Inverse folding.
């Protein structure tokens, strides 16, 4: 998963983009990068690690100009190394182009093979670079025409922020794929236009949300203002439900809905569907907090912070190496004995993927004196990998792909285990008329865009790390 940000028409574009990327840090912590345009010249800085490590005052001072785009990354396609850090920057005969991408293309491998056979030399092993090569080869004279030509060929998930220069003019472009898998919003900061993966970055920079970029919409922002264009393919919304479940920040609105409220409702539904007699409801922080509040409100069982999260380790799941992740659970969470000792505890988490986190949490809680541990997951069982940009492991590692709820309960050693139903999740997210307009392939295996070879390769790569 990744976060993208862009600002056009602000004297301190790089500084604002830096702040915007800060607010998107939860979407990726492997690398951070920024490209700024000054009088038609594009300058780039990328580095591995967090935004605050990658940039300082001196670095930002070397990125002048009134337009800038930024990216925070964690790898779902392409390896975790500096050459894959975005935004990518390329020069071509007509000008320069920088691109930042959130999502995964499912036919990148096929396209790359074809492009390489025609002489393209790739600098990275990221799927995003395919888009640039397709643009470079297109006969259309202008950037929008080239982009449209490239978009006709790529399939999968992409929310893009592009910065193109032509002479001294700079154009910022925002694109959402026809399924609108990943979020992208447009805002204003005084006279400037801003694009971002999530609205929480607008709150930080004190900008105003204008609206979502629609699935299949291409917005072009130039000095004269913003124009909007349609993707060559027909669009049908398939917004990622997992953004609501886990990924997006609770203070964001995604797909027009409050992430916090949706999670709280998921917790309430879970309490209705799977009640249990207990003394205390505790969340797995941070992402399980709103659902645990909902569970507590609905059940009347008091809410307490029975697990404390250390904020000095990253989101451990995101770390690409298994060895770090396993160690990470203990590093990240510790139980509060005075809350759980002698108690019947309901633990609420947003998702159970491999089951390793839950198993460790249950053990920690018992060691801290919990009498009973009832695990409640505020989403359905994760049975299928995501090929549209969420880092889920291969099917063989997804415990719910091959085990029943009872078997998982035995594995994680909880007294009882229950998941939220698919219907319950969709109602919490979308209200009545459940499910339409969302992708929930990780819970159902119904993939809205057919998977190609690239998807197989993503699976293979993940199996190796
Ligand atoms: P696991 O140990 O594999 O069952 O991981 C489950 C934990 O990872 C839960 O606490 C989730 O909040 C978190 N999680 C689930 N999916 C992801 C993801 N794609 N990226 C990062 N963390 C995740």
């Amino acid at each position: 998963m990744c976060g993208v940000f862009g600002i056009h028409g602000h004297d301190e574009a790089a500084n604002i983009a830096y702040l915007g990327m800060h607010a998107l840090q939860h979407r990726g912590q492997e690398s951070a990068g920024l490209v700024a345009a000054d009088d038609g010249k594009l300058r780039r800085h990328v580095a591995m690690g967090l935004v605050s490590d990658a940039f300082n005052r001196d670095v930002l001072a070397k990125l002048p100009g009134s337009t800038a785009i930024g990216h925070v990354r964690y790898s779902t396609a392409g390896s975790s190394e500096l050459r894959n850090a975005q935004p990518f920057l390329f020069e071509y005969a007509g000008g320069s182009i920088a691109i930042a991408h959130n999502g995964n293309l499912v036919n990148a491998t096929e396209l790359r093979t074809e492009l390489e056979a025609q002489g393209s030399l790739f600098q990275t092993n990221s799927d995003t670079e395919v888009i640039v090569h397709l643009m470079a080869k297109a006969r259309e004279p202008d950037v929008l025409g080239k982009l449209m030509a490239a978009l006709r060929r790529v399939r999968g998930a992409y929310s893009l922020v592009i910065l193109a220069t032509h002479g001294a003019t700079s154009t910022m472009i925002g694109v959402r794929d026809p399924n609108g898998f990943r979020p992208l919003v447009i805002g204003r900061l005084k006279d400037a236009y801003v694009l971002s993966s999530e609205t929480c970055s607008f709150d930080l920079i004190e900008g105003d949300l204008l609206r979502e970029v629609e699935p299949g919409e291409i917005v072009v922002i130039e000095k004269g203002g913003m124009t909007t264009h349609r993707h060559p393919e027909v669009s049908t919304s398939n917004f990622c439900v997992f953004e609501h479940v886990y990924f997006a920040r609770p203070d964001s609105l995604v797909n027009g809905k409050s992430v916090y409220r949706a999670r709280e409702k998921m917790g309430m539904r879970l309490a209705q569907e799977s009640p249990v007699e207990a003394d205390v409801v505790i969340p797995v922080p941070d992402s399980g907090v709103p659902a645990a509040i909902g569970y507590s409100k609905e059940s009347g069982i008091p809410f307490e912070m029975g697990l404390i999260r250390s904020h000095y380790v990253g989101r451990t799941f995101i770390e690409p190496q298994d060895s770090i992740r396993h160690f990470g659970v203990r590093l990240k969470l510790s139980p509060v004995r005075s809350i759980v000792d002698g108690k019947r505890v309901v633990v609420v988490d947003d998702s159970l993927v491999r089951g390793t986190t839950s198993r460790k949490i249950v053990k920690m809680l018992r060691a801290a004196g919990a009498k009973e541990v009832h695990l409640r997951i505020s989403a359905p069982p994760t049975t299928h990998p995501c090929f549209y940009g969420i880092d889920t492991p291969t099917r063989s590692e997804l415990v719910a792909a091959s085990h029943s709820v009872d078997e998982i309960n035995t594995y994680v050693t909880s007294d009882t285990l229950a998941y939220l139903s698919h219907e319950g999740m969709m109602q919490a997210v979308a209200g009545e008329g459940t499910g339409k307009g969302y992708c929930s392939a990780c819970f159902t295996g119904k993939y809205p865009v057919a998977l190609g070879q690239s998807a197989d390769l993503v699976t293979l790569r993940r199996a190796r790390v």
